[in-house]
Write a structure and sequence with these properties.
By secondary structure, this protein is of the alpha/beta class. Helix content is 45%, strand content 12%. The protein has a 5-stranded parallel beta sheet, with helices on both faces.
């Protein structure tokens, strides 16, 4: 009798699945309602403001003046906004495609027969103030003054008119080798480059309250949390409220002495990993020593740049990776190289022409462009 009663009271599997499904539907509708109400009732929370936390990062990319061309990125904290059309940012005219690259064409799956070079880097590779533009005269600039990735692309296309050649900066102002490595790991299978040109330096060596390994945690769980913040205003508001509740009553807790965003050892390790990731996908690599103008304007910083560059050069020589160090763009030539720089850190358009010349020369010497013709380029 008991067995018959238990059997008769058991809910059929189909009905249980329907009940469970209804519970999930109600839960999802509740979340959707909270999201809609949050978006209508509360001011929007920018993910860039949530992701960029250190004072040094905020000054570079998230201040009111600097944030015009940036948006939040769950993995890398910030990236260029897509579809910018000649935006004027810090005396630089910036246009981007739908994929947020500073390129004049969409970057999708690599076309058959194409030769693709990605230039991984920071504001130097991005082309900071190349060309320089004054906000009050937004159309008054020389369109022939280009960053080295664009110059490389133009020259290689002219020398190889029957081949599709793409050279574009996979570069964002403020990035370190820590971010560059994470970006390359994420997107290299999508981009399928034939060559990677990598250059980082000043941001890595610059001082910060928090090292990048802690400030930009690239493990899956922190990235997943940032992904939710980026896509849900309700989650973003809840996160901001929780942070304010947990903040010290007297303001931010004083930190210890500033540290490099990326230590010298991590810097070398990141480049070794960049080379390894590229080689594993069949891409050749060129590493460029970071430019820096002189050793008198800021001697301690210049010493750091010399040390980082020397450590990188040694590591690349050990791995037999093509390494390019342009003397005129280093502090060793600080008494005569003023004409190649816009300011202490960034080469101007003449410096970028010199970089293009030296890159093409190295590509020819090391036979890095396979069957492509090497153009004759005058800096």
């Amino acid at each position: 009798m008991r067995n018959q009663t238990a059997t008769s009271n058991k809910i059929p599997l189909r009905r249980r699945l329907i009940y469970i499904g209804l519970i999930y539907v109600v839960f999802l509708l509740l979340l959707l309602s909270i999201e809609v109400i949050t978006r209508f009732a509360l001011p929007g929370v920018e993910s860039l403001d949530m992701f960029v936390a250190t004072p040094q990062q905020k000054m570079q990319v998230a201040s009111q003046q600097q944030s015009a061309i940036f948006e939040g990125d769950p993995l890398l904290l910030w990236r260029l906004k897509p579809n910018l059309d000649r935006a004027i940012w810090d005396f630089t005219v910036v246009s981007t495609n739908a994929q947020s690259f500073r390129a004049g064409y969409p970057i999708g799956a690599k076309p058959a027969g194409a030769f693709r070079i990605v230039c991984l880097g920071d504001s130097v590779t991005f082309g900071y103030r190349v060309p320089p533009v004054w906000p009050e005269r937004p159309n008054d600039y020389n369109p022939d003054w280009l960053p080295f990735p664009m110059l490389l692309e133009n020259e290689l296309r002219k020398a190889n008119p029957n081949r599709r050649i793409e050279v574009f900066p996979m570069a964002v102002p403020g990035y370190t080798s820590h971010q560059g490595l994470a970006w390359l790991r994420r997107d290299i299978d999508y981009l399928q480059p034939d060559m990677v040109i990598a250059s980082f330096g000043w941001n890595d060596a610059s001082a910060s309250d928090v090292a990048d390994r802690d400030a930009i945690d690239t493990r899956w769980f922190p990235v997943a949390i940032r992904w939710l913040i980026d896509r849900s205003q309700a989650f973003a508001h809840a996160t901001r409220w929780l942070r304010s509740r947990n903040a010290p009553a007297g303001g931010p807790t004083p930190r210890g002495a500033p540290v490099p965003r990326v230590s010298q050892m991590e810097y070398v390790d990141n480049f070794n990993a960049i080379v390894s990731v590229a080689h594993d996908r069949g891409a050749s690599v060129i590493v460029i020593g970071a430019p820096y103008r002189d050793s008198t304007t800021n001697p301690p910083e210049a010493m750091l740049m010399t040390q980082y560059r020397a450590a990188l050069k040694s590591a690349m020589q050990q791995s037999q990776t093509p390494y390019l160090e342009i003397l005129e763009l280093t502090e060793a030539a600080g008494t005569v190289n003023q004409g190649f720089f816009g300011e202490l850190i960034h080469p101007n358009h003449i410096g970028h022409r010199l970089m293009t010349f030296e890159l093409l020369k190295l590509m020819g010497q090391r036979h890095l462009l396979r069957d492509l013709n090497i153009p004759t380029f005058v800096p």
